[in-house]
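Exercise 7. Given the encoded structure of a 462-residue chain, write a plausible sequence.
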């Protein structure tokens, strides 16, 4: 039996080229203009699963984009691993900030990736990481190294809230039955500091609109006498944090699970350089909630951020005008204990209540999802930890991430299994940003590590 390292060495160029082909399809789920590309990507994922040795590969229709399913059941008495990933990507905007076009992948060396990285939208989030599992599967089936049953479930709406998957999962509990869910859609600390993600934040995403006069007005004739929606909106938003950067919405922190001193001390042991962090972002200081460290602020604490704000005149030159409307998109990252629907409701009530006379305020909820934390005393985590030990030569550090994969909490509830987040991306890989990339070393390391997970999970299940 060929070992995985040899197999990768032999097939590495093909592995890279296949990923590059997948990255050329602009599967932007947020923009209807890419509808056909998203569907074509689902087809491409389907044939890749077939080639990797999966049976019963199908495109499962949903009210939205399809879910690609495939499986290899070798013995019903053996454990089953369910692999989840997403084939949709974020919009490439702002496209002018890309050094090369987002859907024309190129390989370039960087300081962090001396062996080269593939630059393209979706390279790391999540096509590259999802495809590691397809290639690991190919290795296991073609060399007789598959130790257990595998199911794949790859969706096309993760970047827009996984609505169709929330519909699909409860309707397909039998089909999706598994002993552990394996996901590579997160990151790790550094290539020489492997980590396993043990927590994700939840999310509540809302849009707000402040309306003043029934039309845009001359700011000389009317200025000072009527409410300016942009002035009001910015003032309202500013009031959502106090001087310590605590969020002021009444009840916002009520159910936040606080970590014990011991847990926080444990977290603080993870290697972290504030200086490098600031340098990487070209900021002269970090900023955030009083009383918490940077790593706590971006993982175990909830946040409220404006993601976009618009209104009035933003074209060339000056135009004297009081806009009729002002708008903003606001996200709140949530932590375990906070129910996203409740938080959305609290936000709505509070935001409407602080609107002064002279304007009306409309709050429109978008999507949301629960946060997630997983204990590390289960066999899934242990199997992952041993797998990294084999391929990185180091025990991985458990790490709570600040990002969200809202569907994860639903998986645990509906499918009653633990979720293992084996991410191989780095924070510097620029996911959702211009020049997103994924290190070739990371891609191949992921392919190498995954079969070790299967082996240990099967052994530990006995
Ligand atoms: N893969 C990311 C989430 C992620 C990245 C978690 C890195 C941890 C580390 C996922 O595709 C994503 O972008 N999620 C969105 C939420 C979604 C509802 C749009 C997010 O976190 O903003
Ligand atoms: Mn993702
Ligand atoms: Mn994403």
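Solution.
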């Amino acid at each position: 039996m060929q070992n995985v390292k040899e197999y990768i060495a032999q097939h590495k160029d093909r592995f890279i080229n296949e990923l590059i082909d997948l990255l050329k399809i602009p599967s932007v789920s947020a923009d209807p203009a890419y509808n056909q590309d998203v569907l074509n990507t689902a087809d491409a994922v389907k044939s890749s699963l077939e080639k990797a040795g999966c049976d019963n590969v199908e495109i499962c229709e949903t009210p939205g984009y399809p879910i690609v399913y495939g499986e290899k059941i070798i013995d019903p008495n053996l454990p089953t691993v369910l692999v989840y990933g997403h084939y949709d990507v974020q919009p490439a905007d702002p496209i002018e900030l890309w050094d090369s076009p987002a859907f024309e992948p190129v390989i370039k060396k960087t300081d962090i990736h001396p062996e080269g990285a593939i630059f393209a939208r979706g390279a790391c989030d999540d096509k590259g990481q999802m495809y590691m599992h397809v290639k690991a599967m190919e290795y296991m089936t073609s060399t007789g190294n598959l130790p257990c049953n595998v199911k794949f479930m790859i969706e096309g709406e993760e970047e827009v809230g996984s609505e169709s998957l929330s519909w699909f999962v409860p309707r397909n509990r039998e089909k999706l039955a598994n002993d552990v869910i394996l996901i590579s859609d997160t990151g790790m600390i550094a290539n020489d500091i492997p980590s396993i993600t043990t927590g994700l934040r939840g999310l509540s995403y809302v849009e707000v609109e402040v309306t003043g006069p029934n039309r845009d007005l001359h700011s000389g004739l009317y200025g000072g006498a009527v409410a300016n929606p942009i002035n009001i909106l910015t003032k309202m938003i500013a009031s959502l944090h106090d001087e310590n950067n605590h969020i002021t919405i009444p009840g916002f922190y009520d159910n936040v699970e606080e970590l014990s001193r011991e847990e926080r001390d444990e977290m603080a042991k993870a290697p972290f350089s504030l200086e490098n962090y600031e340098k990487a972002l070209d900021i002269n200081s970090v900023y955030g909630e009083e009383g918490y460290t940077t790593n706590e602020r971006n993982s175990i604490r909830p946040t409220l951020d404006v993601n976009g704000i618009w209104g009035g005149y933003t074209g060339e030159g000056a135009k004297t005008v009081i806009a009729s409307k002002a708008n903003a998109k606001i996200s709140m990252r949530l932590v375990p204990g906070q129910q996203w629907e409740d938080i959305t409701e609290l936000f709505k009530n509070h935001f409407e209540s602080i609107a002064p006379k002279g304007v009306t305020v409309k709050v429109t909820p978008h999507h949301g999802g629960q946060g997630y934390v997983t204990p590390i005393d289960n066999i899934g985590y242990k199997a992952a930890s041993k797998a990294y030990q084999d391929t990185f030569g180091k025990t991985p550090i458990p790490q709570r991430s600040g990002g969200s994969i809202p569907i994860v909490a639903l998986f645990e509830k509906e499918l009653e299994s633990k979720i293992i987040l084996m991410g191989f991306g780095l924070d510097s890989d620029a996911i959702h940003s211009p020049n997103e990339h994924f290190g070739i070393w990371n891609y191949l390391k992921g392919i190498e590590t995954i079969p070790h997970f299967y082996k240990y999970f099967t052994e530990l299940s006995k």
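Remark. Residues 4-200+371-460 form a domain with the Aminopeptidase fold (CATH 3.40.630.10). Students should compare their own answers with the one above.
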